[in-house]
Specification:
A 5-stranded mixed sheet has the order 5-4-3-7-6. The chain has a two-stranded parallel sheet with strand order 1-2. By secondary structure, the chain is an alpha/beta fold. The chain is built from 3 helices and 7 strands, in the order βααββββαββ. The protein has 2 domains: 71 residues, Transcription elongation factor, GreA/GreB, N-terminal domain (Helix Hairpins); 80 residues, Chitinase A, domain 3 (Roll), CATH 3.10.50. The two termini are 29 Å apart. The protein is elongated, with a radius of gyration of 22 Å.
């Protein structure tokens, strides 16, 4: 059985998406299918086929979310003692040792990852390089553009 690590915020977002799909989107699609069915011949009814296709995708996503919720492992990093070590759920400030450019990332589960918002998946190469290291450690990260060395500046439990 696959377990899905999630932050408290990630689990809440997944629950909200599930509620929206089951309480808003699913009933609307059923209504759209009923309306399209009234238009006549189903063989050449584009609205009907589009609504049925959309319904299939929504139902697949609902099943996926239910499976993830059933197998989620919620990790609340705020309840874990701060040791300076990078673990799932921590927010990590790192500095490029060549340019001294600093960036901050929150290490989250797959479903929560959003690089533009500074949230990186625990399975990403950068997160894998950081996990288990401590403030002051230097890590080498392999990137398509070559290896980059980062120093861990600060680890926060927020």
């Amino acid at each position: 059985m696959i377990k899905y690590p999630m932050t408290v915020q990630g689990a809440k977002a997944l629950e909200e998406e599930h509620a929206h799909l089951t309480k808003v989107v699913r009933p609307k699609l059923s209504q759209d299918i009923g309306t399209a069915r009234e238009l006549g011949d189903l063989k050449e009814n584009a609205e009907y086929h589009a609504a049925r296709e959309q319904q299939g995708m929504v139902e697949a996503r609902i099943r996926d979310i239910e499976g993830r919720i059933q197998n989620q492992v919620i990790i609340d990093v705020t309840t874990i003692a701060h040791t300076g070590k990078v673990i799932f759920g921590t927010t990590v400030e790192i500095a490029n040792t060549d340019t001294d450019e600093r960036v901050t990332y929150h290490i989250v589960g797959e479903d929560e990852a959003d690089f533009k918002k500074g949230k990186i998946s625990v399975g990403s190469p950068l997160a894998r390089a950081l996990i288990g290291k401590e403030e002051g450690d230097v890590v080498m990260v392999k990137t398509p553009g070559g290896d980059i060395e980062y120093e861990i500046v600060e680890v926060r439990h927020i």
